[in-house]
Amino acid sequence: MKTRISFILNNDLVDIEINPAVVLLDFIRNKRLKGAKEGCKEGDCGACTVLTGELKNGTVSYRSVNSCLLPVGNISGKHIVTIEGLNQDGLLLNPIQKAFVDEGATQCGFCTPGFIISLTGYFLNLVNGNSTGVIESLDGNICRCTGHNSIIRAAKKVSDKFTPGNKIITQCDLAEMKIIPEYFLNIHDRLKKLKLTCKENYSDIQSYSYFVGGGTDLFVQRPDEMMNSEIKLLHNDKDLFGIDIKEGYCIVGSNATVTDLRESEIMNKFFPEFDGFMNLFGSTPIRNNATVGGNLNNASPIGDMTIFFLSLNSVVTLTDGISERDVFLKDFYLSYKKTDRSKNEYMKCLKFKLPEGNYFYNFEKVSKRTYLDIASVNSSVFLKTENNFITEIYLSAGGVSAIPLFLSKTCEFLTGTELSPDNIKEAVSVSQKEISPISDARGSENYKRLLFSRLIYAHFLVLFPEIFKTEDTYERL
Ligand SMILES: Cc1cc2nc3c(=O)[nH]c(=O)nc-3n(C[C@H](O)[C@H](O)[C@H](O)COP(=O)(O)OP(=O)(O)OC[C@H]3O[C@@H](n4cnc5c(N)ncnc54)[C@H](O)[C@@H]3O)c2cc1C
Ligand code: FES
Ligand code: FES
Questions:
Q1: Which of 421, 37, 20, 89 is nearest to 234 (CA)?
Q2: Which of 42, 297, 332 to mutate to test the pocket of ligand 1 (most atoms within 8 A of CB)?
Q3: Cα–Cα dist 344/310, whole Å
Q4: pLDDT at residue 474, rounded to an integer
Q5: pTM score, two decimals?
Q6: Is the CB of 140 under 6 A from ligand 2?
């Protein structure tokens, strides 16, 4: 299976027929651009990091991504920047590269291109007002020999020098500072000239073996199978993007990424802590490609977005391209990795009722490492109260069952009860009958049972510190 794609690779236009499942890392290295390295090929090390730039709101929005997991079919119409594309004329080091040399932040150099690209992504995101922090921008990069201190010193040095005060930075400023080469300034107009198909055709839907979102699960789990299968790249369907409000519901397109959600005005307005919750999801480059549709349909029992949206009593819309049907997310999971979605359907969007009144929500995740790790157990809660009584509650948990679990019996028990340590203790014991964790590499059955009971207490300690005290939970262990 081949498809035609056009994109700009550094300063060059590429227009080719290619198997869309070839990952970008293999493509660029075959083009003799050897700066991006293959380390883990699983999205963990960041040695393969590149930037993708796409037209958004009249500008080019750049994101750092793991090229080892990115199918080239997803890059049509974009600007791809590898370390070679950051070279300045006359072999001069750019300021980021120079800071690395000055601070001794590179030894064997295997990881260095990835770090430099991520830092360039940090500066380019300052232009859009989206950057989190300079050190956070490196959360997807690992160095095996230098030690991270010198890298952090280099990153701070260059950010202190080039981001003084609250000055708004433009791409022209970055070009003047030599952080990006001059040719970046023409990319906007050049991307506009690329001809793109935005309307997808689903008439041959039954012929596809896989739907692909961002590819961050599929290209870890079955990269070879992807190369030899008929795949449908949903990323190219512009109708599946966007986070909007319609008739009292928030509609999240299945192509929305974790980064899109974290930057969404709607999510930040109704769930101000959401950004912090999802900071525990993967790394910056993973979050830039990981979609809601992928998280929900991967059907992992510990998907973080799945667990969060389960507690909002969300509904998903499935379609075969002609007709649509809605299913409550809590009814979507049938057994381990089996969902109520037929082979001919893909997920169009997820929707949930916009919360109003006296509502509270919380998300907890425990993993072996705090960052860049999947959960051992995670849990989310959404509830409403009136005069210290729970009037409505939705509780979900991951890692304690074969499917992402909605705890209907525990919710039933808690509805109408007073917020009190005794009632939560009782709810914990009801919940223990609803879960069925297994012992695996992430912990024994007993450990997960104990962990989940602690996470229920954690929800109430975080949400109602005036009612619940840590001491209340000690004796209950
Ligand atoms: C290094 C690393 C760290 C990670 N960390 C986390 C983490 O902290 N928390 C977490 O929850 N996950 C994590 N993940 C897993 C992964 O990133 C997420 O599950 C992500 O949301 C998957 O989205 P995707 O678009 O990349 O999925 P894809 O790989 O494209 O697809 C995943 C599955 O969903 C199906 N699919 C995709 N979109 C649709 C659709 N619209 N309709 C129907 N089916 C569809 C595909 O066919 C496939 O079966 C991590 C992955 C990596 C590699
Ligand atoms: S090679 Fe390690 S993240 Fe891509
Ligand atoms: S310098 Fe060798 S891995 Fe970082």
A1: 20
A2: 297
A3: 24
A4: 66
A5: 0.96
A6: no
C-alpha closest to that of 285 among 117, 460, 163 = 117
DSSP string, 258-296: HHHHHH-HHHHHH-TTHHHHHTTSS-HHHHHH-BHHHHH
Residue 429 has, within 13 A of its CA and on its CB side, a CA count of 7
Strands 333-335 and 338-339 come out as antiparallel
Give yes or no for residue 145 CB within 6 A of ligand 3.
Answer: yes
What is the layout of strands, in order, in the sheet containing 324-328? 243-246, 249-253, 346-353, 315-319, 324-328
Among 50, 54, 76, 75, CA closest to 65: 50
Q: Which residues share a beta bridge with 365?
A: 378
Is the CB–ligand 2 distance for residue 117 below 6 Å?
A: no
Nearest CA owner, ligand 3 atom 2: 108
In DSSP terms, 137 is beta-bridged to none
Does residue 378 have its Cβ closer than 6 Å to ligand 1? no
Q: What ligand has the least distance to the C-alpha of 146?
A: 3
Question: How are beta strands 59-66 and 49-56 bridged, if at all?
Answer: antiparallel
Determine how many CB atoms are found less than 10 A away from the CB of residue 99. 23
Query: In this predicted model, what pLDDT tens digit does every residue of 230-287 receive, in sequence order?
Result: 999 999 898 899 999 999 999 999 999 999 999 999 999 999 999 999 999 999 999 9
What are residue 377's phi and psi, to 5 degrees? -140, 135
Q: Residues with Cβ < 8 Å from 315, sequence gap 6 or more?
A: 326, 327, 328, 329, 350, 351, 352
Check if 68 has its Cβ closer than 6 Å to any atom of ligand 2.
yes
